[in-house]
Amino acid sequence: MADLRLIRNFSIVAHIDHGKSTLADRILEYTGVVPKREMREQYLDDMDLEREMGITIKANRATCPYRYQGETYMLNLIDTPGHVDFHYEVSRALAACDGVLVLVDATQGVQAQTVANAHAAIEAGLEIILVVNKIDLPGAIPEDVALEAEQVLGLDASSAVFTSGKTGAGMEDLFKAIIERIPHPKGDPHGNLRALIYDAKSDVHRGVICHTRVFDGTFKRGDKIDLIAVGRTYNVSEVGKYTPKHTPVESLSAGEVGYFVAGIKTLADVSIGDTITLTSDPTDQPLPGYQPPQQMVFCDFYPGMGTTTDQLREAMEKLWLNDSSFTYATVGSDALGIGFRCGFLGLLHMRIIQERLEREGNVTVVQTAPTVTYEIKLNDGTVQRIESPSELPDMSKIEEIREPFVTAQMIVPADAVGPVMQLSLERRGRPGKTEYLSPTRVMMTYDFPLCEILYDFYDKLKSCTKGYGTADYHLRGFELGDMVKMDILVNGMPVDALSVIVHRDKAQYRGRRLLERLKKQIDRHQFEIPLQAAIGAKVIARETIKAFRKDVTAKCYGGDITRKRKLLEKQKEGKKRMRTVGNVSIPQEAFMSILDPDES
Question: How many CB atoms neighbour CB 141 within 10 A?
Fold first, then answer.
């Protein structure tokens, strides 16, 4: 049974690219849990995609022993993602910790995601250590950055730790701060077992491996445990810790972080945030748990060239076993056949799932443009949520359409305030407060409709701030909007995968832009193809793709004009017949062309 005084459970949070994974590498190296010959960059990022993109997608953990003042401390580290899409991974990690390292880049200062993650740690009541990283870089201004963090986050600049995850500078100071400032866990090793499942992943051979933090009590191999939320009982076949490889141990007791295996078949049988307790001596006070991750972006995946629906379904099932944060359900389309409506946490999450499907499942997919969730209030007073424009009921039955709004915090250079305000107003943003963090940096708060910032807002923000702007957002709720469904008709037939829900004021502009891009994407056929954007029965925009024209009169040298006319009339009749039976081939790029609302 571990001594609670010698345990420290902590997490690292920061803005994306501020050096979390590199600092985690140095902690593993300095504590000796990973031999130097096995050490590699981003050691805890075990997905190929994480290593290629240079980002953390899933929170990872490691138990590191560290000798300090004659005693060996057990440091339980949890490395978290920095991207806004994976904020739920950060919130899970914080629930298993007693303290947190808030990492700030010494060259870039406090950024939007730093603020969001620091506030999440403050709300969780955790001890916070300010760490200014990358002090080895030529443009580093660590003291100024520490003062900025004090002003923005309220963290004491005088107690900041200055480190370099790359060179290892300041690591001794960091370990000292972790041991002296982060409190040891509280709990009763002899009490009723209360342990939190804060994450889980599927293993082909052993079933589900549950990551757990024990708050009270002790459990070991052979114990019979209850999962309170799902109401199931299992026998524990293995308990262990991450060092950072799976290492079986005798038992896990109060304050410790580790994993257990209990013959759980699929992730559907586990509820993240559930409390486990002993069947023989159950607790009557389960832990609070989590809100389930909320999917905010939806799109349809259809089988591409050389892929069947069954192959795509099998690839999705396998991927869902390792990442239950996305959802999928079968849908049908007249244009694309049988596919799946998938829900994601954000656009980056969507791109990662598509990439993993194609790599790990060896399938090709046709992806429709992403949409957000809308709330529909019907005339009879009932409220329902829809994930796709094709689910929208008849407009005569709808009393109001509500769209999701987010509160966004943007940190931008002071000389870019004007362009950012202009961009925000174009995206129907409502201004909130504006704070000057320093003479050169400003934090601006706006409320936006999620659909307006989903696709390209971050790129546009980077453009008008010369690359220095950062943004973070969180959902604030649904608000009434003057929204309409815009159908796209190709050759007179509505293509449901291209229909979108837009604000009425922007419908005609969006319709024209969309048809212009569709015209470039769809190849010419032997017959003329009209492209139309319509709201209900009213056509608001039109483009025409001209037909190929074969010169059927090429061999007519002179002679009566009626001969030429006869050949042209015959060609016209043939094209008319072809138009009635011909199918228009629509490429994948056409379905993604509605992504950028402003591209000219």
Answer: 15
